Amino acid sequence: MTDETMTASTLPQAPLHEWTPERIAALIALWNEGLTTSQMGLRLGITKNAVVGKVHRLGLPKRQSPIRKVAAREEKPMGEVIKLDKLTGDMCCWPDGEPGTDEFRFCGKKSVADKPYCADHCRRAYVRVTKDGRKIAVA
Ligand SMILES: [Zn+2]
User: Fold this and answer.
1) Cα of 70 to ligand 1 centre, how many Å?
2) Ligand 1 mean position, distance from CA 91 (Å)
3) Mean pLDDT by 10 residues, the chain (139 residues)
4) CA 119 to ligand 1 center in whole angstroms
5) CA 35, CA 60: separation in Å to the nearest integer?
6) Relative to the CA of 129, which of 22, 76, 137, 138 has its CA 20 to 30 Å away?
7) For position 64, what pLDDT does the model report?
8) Residue 40 CA to ligand 1 centre (angstroms)
9) How many angstroms separate the alpha carbon of residue 12 from the centre of ligand 1?
10) Amino acid 58: pLDDT
């Protein structure tokens, strides 16, 4: 008897590239979880391009990458936020962040005499690169 062979060959198995309602539901679930298209492709057993194409055809809403959001938050410097109205003459006015947004702030450390910046930012502001590629302070 060849029962095993019979069973295997008669199993209803959809080809991997076929978008059954279950696979579309899985795609949408993974999309909403925030997985990258390549991660989704791995889970679904298809290429990244197939995922991108299907997402586009389904018209799924664009997501913000949660990975990038976390990274941006970690980069944000801690401490007091110095806005323009708090900035005084002896404070470093090195700008930080995107002007016009809540992120925008100033360094606010004590500035070096006769300079608008603190010692750290003076070094960054008044640096010249010589012909042979060396960086020299010109402050
Ligand atoms: Zn500074």
Assistant:
1) 25
2) 8
3) 51 67 94 92 94 94 64 54 85 88 88 92 84 73
4) 7
5) 13
6) 76
7) 66
8) 44
9) 67
10) 94
Angstrom CA distances, 66 to 8, 15, 27, 38, stand at 42, 32, 18, 15
Q: Would you tell me how many other CB atoms lie within 10 Å of the CB of residue 38? A: 12
DSSP designation for 37: H
Task: Let me know if 117 is exposed, middle or buried by CB neighbors in 10 A (0-12, 13-18, 19+).
Answer: buried
CA-based nearest residue to 21, from 48, 76, 58, 49? 58
**DSSP type of residue 107:** -
Task: Supply 8's token pair.
Answer: 């295997």
Report residue 39 as tokens.
């991660």
Could you tell me the distance, in angstroms and rounded to a whole number, from the CA of residue 105 to the centre of ligand 1? Answer: 11
pLDDT at 29: 94
> H-type helices in 19-130, by residue range?
21-33, 37-44, 48-58, 66-75, 119-125
* CA of residue 103 to ligand 1 center, whole Å: 16
SS3 131: coil
pLDDT at position 26: 95
